[in-house]
Amino acid sequence: MSPVELRAHERLDDLMHKGRRIIQNTEEFCFSLDAVLLAHFPAFRKRDRVLDLGTGTGVIPLLIAGETGPIDAVELRPVMAELAARNVRMNGLEDTITVKQGDYRSMQALYAPESFDWVLANPPYRPVAHGQANKIHGVARARHEFTATLEDVVTAARFALRFGGHFAMVHLPERLAEIIEQMHRHQMEPKRLRMVQPKEGRAPNMMLIEAVVGAAPGGLKVLPPLIVHEADGGYTAEIRRIYGQDEEKI
Question: What is the pTM of this model?
Answer without folding.
Answer: 0.92
